[in-house]
Specification:
This protein is mainly alpha-helical. The protein contains ten helices and five strands, in the order E-E-E-H-H-E-E-H-H-H-H-H-H-H-H. The strands form two sheets. The chain has a three-stranded antiparallel β-sheet with strand order 3-5-4. A two-stranded antiparallel sheet has the order 1-2. The protein has a domain of 106 residues: K Homology domain, type 1 (Ribosomal Protein S8, Chain: A, domain 1). InterPro entries: KH_dom_type_1_sf, KHDC1, MOEP19_KH-like. Its main location: cytoplasm. This is KH domain containing 3 like, subcortical maternal complex member. Keywords: Cytoplasm, Nucleus.
């Protein structure tokens, strides 16, 4: 059997033969609420050794504070970190009962935390593995599902050929509008460049006043 590990406490106790405990050091420094007769009937709580530090902090650093609040002394016997630990509670019987219940409740809480942590790790590993092992079909589908932003960007970046083709395929309404909105220079140029047929037709359709004028002057 390994030597029990020592944890901090308000009063260091030493176990003699059997279940007899004695106080180490100066008896005058013990708390006012602690009496020697409490050493005769400790209440034992057994739990996994790792729970001692889970409940009372690293190295049991919170044990003295718990002793002050609960007005009990806690003596921890721990033989193997991977084995079982025994916590002995010294004090008034009803205080012993309350502290023992508190320790067992905290032990259950930390067991549940450890169980949840052990379950979450395999689940995270499985999720990462599933994400890296997607089928080729799923990969192609993901590639074809571009975001709306990517689609708009692609639409605004048309090739020069597509831009020229779009420019030559104007709607009939746009073509008529463009034809009626010619510049004054273009209109005058078109008026002076009439075809011969249009010129002859214009000459034969002169007004009667213009055709009679040469006769009256002869």
């Amino acid at each position: 059997m390994a030597t029990p590990r020592r944890f901090p406490t308000l009063v260091q106790l030493e176990q003699r033969e059997g279940t007899l405990f004695t106080v180490l050091g100066n008896l005058s420094k013990r708390p006012y609420w602690f009496h020697s007769e409490y050493l005769k009937s400790p209440k034992a709580v057994h739990l996994e050794a790792w729970l001692v530090e889970a409940i009372f902090g690293q190295g049991g650093e919170h044990i003295p504070h718990v002793e002050c609040v609960s007005q009990t002394l806690l003596h921890v016997n721990q033989w193997d970190p991977e084995g079982e630990a025994e916590i002995l509670i010294f004090g008034r019987p009803y205080y012993q009962k309350d502290v023992a219940k508190m320790i067992m409740n905290l032990a259950d809480y930390h067991r549940q935390l450890r169980a949840q942590s052990s379950e979450e790790v395999p689940a995270q590993d499985a999720a990462r593995e599933a994400a890296t092992q997607r089928s080729p079909e799923a990969a192609r589908e993901a590639a074809t599902q571009r975001s709306p932003e990517a689609a708009r960007e692609a639409a605004t970046q048309r090739s020069p050929e597509a831009a020229r083709e779009a420019a030559t395929q104007r709607s009939p309404e746009a073509a008529r509008e463009a034809a009626t909105q010619r510049s004054p220079e273009a209109a005058r140029e078109a008026a002076t460049q009439r075809s011969p047929e249009a010129a002859r037709e214009a000459a034969t359709q002169r007004s009667p006043d213009v055709t009679q004028d040469p006769v009256t002057r002869s």
